[in-house]
């Protein structure tokens, strides 16, 4: 696909839960010279995320859960407020996010709108994340949420949009996908 890149070797360094590969490749620089380089790339599949919002109430639904990698790196209690998200399985991103929304937040939503897609850590993680927004109403709540996985322990938060935006400024919300979705909602006036 790119004749400036020639993959020489791909070595699996770890495949315990997800896969960490070391890729050796020849890279042709802008000046035409060829360099041999190595990069580690963590492959944990792709994901989808969604902002649920209610115009009339001026609210959004977010989740709160323990995230070990953040606990290892400065997040005091390790809990993170995030937009609902999940890894893609066999299904396409849209079906995946509908299913994930019901499992994690308890809302059975109808129409979802794809807004953009983004690599979240392009220097080290292969994952591309698909971003969605959807309107929700109280009557769509069909269960308590929380996740289906035995180790999942997800708290569902319904916050005013203003409060959620404030939390992105004061550091209470520190998750990229969540900040991106809240700012998308603000820029596009999804809520008053
Ligand atoms: N035992 C074990 N379980 C794991 C490990 N890593 C993840 N899991 C479990 O695998 C499940 C994955 O849950 P999902 O809801 O599908 O994914 P997610 O972790 O919420 O990921 C979403 O958010 C990430 C962070 O923003 C995104 O990177 C990702 O794309 C996705 O959108 C969770 O139950 C989690 O505990 C691991 O190393 N060991
Ligand atoms: Mg999740």
Automatic annotation (TrEMBL):
Mg(2+) 1 binds at residues 85, 152. It holds the Pfam family NUDIX. Its cofactor is Mg(2+). Residues 43-181 form the Nudix hydrolase domain. Belongs to the Nudix hydrolase family. NudK subfamily. NCBIfam families: nudix-type nucleoside diphosphatase, YffH/AdpP family, PRK15009.1. This is GDP-mannose pyrophosphatase.
């Amino acid at each position: 696909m790119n004749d400036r890149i020639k993959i020489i070797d791909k070595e699996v360094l770890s495949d315990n839960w997800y896969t960490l590969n070391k890729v050796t490749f020849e890279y042709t620089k802008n000046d035409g010279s060829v360099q041999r380089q190595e990069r580690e790339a963590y492959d944990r599949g792709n994901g989808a995320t969604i902002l649920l919002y209610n115009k009339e109430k001026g609210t959004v639904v977010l989740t709160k859960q323990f995230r070990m990698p953040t606990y290892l790196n400065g997040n005091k209690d390790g809990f993170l407020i995030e937009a609902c998200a999940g890894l893609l399985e066999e299904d396409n991103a849209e079906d995946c996010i509908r299913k994930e929304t019901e499992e994690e937040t308890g809302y059975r939503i109808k129409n979802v709108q794809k807004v953009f897609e983004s690599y979240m850590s392009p220097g080290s993680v292969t994952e591309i994340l698909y971003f969605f927004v959807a309107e929700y109403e109280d009557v769509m709540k069909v269960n308590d949420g929380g996740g289906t996985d035995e180790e999942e322990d997800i708290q569902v938060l319904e916050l005013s949009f203003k409060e959620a935006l404030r939390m992105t400024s004061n550091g209470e919300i520190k998750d990229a996908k969540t900040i991106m979705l809240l700012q998308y909602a603000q820029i596009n006036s999804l809520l008053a």
